[in-house]
Every structure is written in C-alpha cells, then in structure tokens.
C-alpha cells in the first residue's frame, strides 16, 4: 500500500468526528461494550504507540508497542473513553498529526527496519496503521460502513486475515464484484456476496448465514 492510503483514511476519520457532541460520543459504537469514546481513545492511543514504533525504528532501536502490554492498553482505553467530546477529538487530531509526520520521515531505505509490533518491519507497520484507521472508522457507526471499503483494502485485509480460516476448511469466497479467493484445506465452504460483505464477515464485522466459525484475529 501507499502512504497516501493512510493519509486518506486519517483525513476521513478526522472529518467524521469533527464537531462530535456529547450524546454522540457516549453512544454505542459497532463494537460490543465500546462507546464511540472507547473507539476514538483506542485510535488515538494506537497512533501514539505507532509514532513511537516509527521513531525508535528510525534510530535503529526497538520499543514495546504499549508500555505494560495488553492490560495497560485496555486500562488506558477505559480511562480515556469518558472524556468530554471536544477533548476526545482534540486528542485524536493531535495523535493522528504526529503519526502522519512520523510516517513522512520514513525514507525508501527504511521500510525494512524492524519493529516489535508483530515482530515485523515498518513496511508491515504502515499496513497495520491502514487497517486500524479504515476499520475503526466504520466501527464508530457514524455513517461509513464496510460497504465503502476500497477494493484494494479488501484484498489486503483478506490476505492478512488468512489465519482466521478454521482447520479442515477450504474456504472459497466468490464475490459478485471480484475474483474468487481461496484459503485452507479440507471441506469446501463456498460463500457468496459482494467483496465488501465477504471481507466484513472475515473481519468479524458482519454475519453470513451458513458461514463457518472463524479463528481469532492473527
């Protein structure tokens, strides 16, 4: 993917939450148990964490994604979710601005630099940033849905989520508006629909009747 995809996703998110009011901030997101304040806080915290991943990588150093690991990540989301709407939006804008500035500092020779996020590289890290911004923008439940995910994003996400296919299943997705996609070995399970609907199901954001139960996110 290209940095422009990340910048496009960030701009869309910022525009979406601009002027967020208190009632909307406290309202339910698409994610069970999370308000929109939870989602916004998570995106802001993720953005800061990834800014740090980039900054350290460019110095030839490694750093944990979240100090204190998953428990600290979850506690920080809960602690920040109930802030006033204006504070949520300002924090998100500041975090996204810093994140995009960090990615702008990555040169052509830097993409192979290692990071601790998934024990991968900056090239994989910008893909992770893209996924977080696009998916969680839909999770806010403020208008954009997975039906609007770009085709090249869907293709990327399907390939990233291949480990979700259960053992013993040969999963065959036949989108009405795209090429056939296959993964796994075993019993054939064929699902049909639009590319976005099938991708949303594989990402845990939609239901498809008769679909197999998926494994956790990789």
UniProtKB/TrEMBL annotation:
Swiss-Prot/TrEMBL keywords: Isomerase, Pyruvate
Name of the protein in its database record = Maleylpyruvate isomerase family mycothiol-dependent enzyme
Q: Which InterPro entries match?
A: DinB/YfiT-like, Maleyloyr_isom, MDMPI_metal-binding, SCP2_sterol-bd_dom_sf
- Asked if Isomerase is a keyword of the record, the answer is yes
Which residue ranges does the record assign to the Mycothiol-dependent maleylpyruvate isomerase metal-binding domain? 8-140
Q: Which residues cross the membrane?
A: none
Which domain of life does the UniProt lineage start with?
Answer: Bacteria
Q: Which GO terms describe its molecular function?
A: isomerase activity; metal ion binding
Q: Which Pfam families match?
A: MDMPI_N (PF11716)
């Amino acid at each position: 993917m290209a940095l422009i995809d990340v910048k496009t996703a960030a701009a869309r998110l910022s525009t979406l939450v601009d002027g967020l009011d208190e009632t909307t901030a406290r309202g339910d997101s698409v994610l069970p148990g999370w308000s929109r304040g939870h989602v916004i806080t998570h995106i802001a915290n993720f953005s800061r964490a990834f800014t740090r991943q980039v900054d350290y990588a460019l110095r030839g150093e490694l750093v944990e994604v979240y100090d204190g690991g998953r428990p600290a990540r979850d506690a920080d989301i809960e602690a920040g979710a109930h802030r006033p709407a204006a504070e949520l939006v300002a924090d998100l804008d500041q975090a996204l601005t810093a994140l995009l500035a960090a990615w702008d500092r990555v040169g052509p020779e830097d993409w192979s630099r290692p990071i601790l996020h998934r024990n991968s590289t900056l090239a994989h890290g910008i893909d992770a940033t893209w996924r977080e911004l696009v998916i969680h923008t839909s999770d806010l439940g403020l208008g954009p849905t997975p039906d609007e995910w770009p085709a090249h994003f869907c293709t990327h996400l399907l390939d990233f989520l291949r480990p979700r296919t259960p053992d013993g299943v040969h999963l065959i997705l036949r989108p009405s508006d795209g090429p056939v996609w296959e993964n796994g070995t075993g019993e054939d399970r064929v699902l049909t629909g639009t590319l976005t609907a099938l991708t949303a199901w594989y990402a845990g954001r939609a239901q498809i009747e008769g679909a197999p139960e998926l494994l956790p996110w990789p």
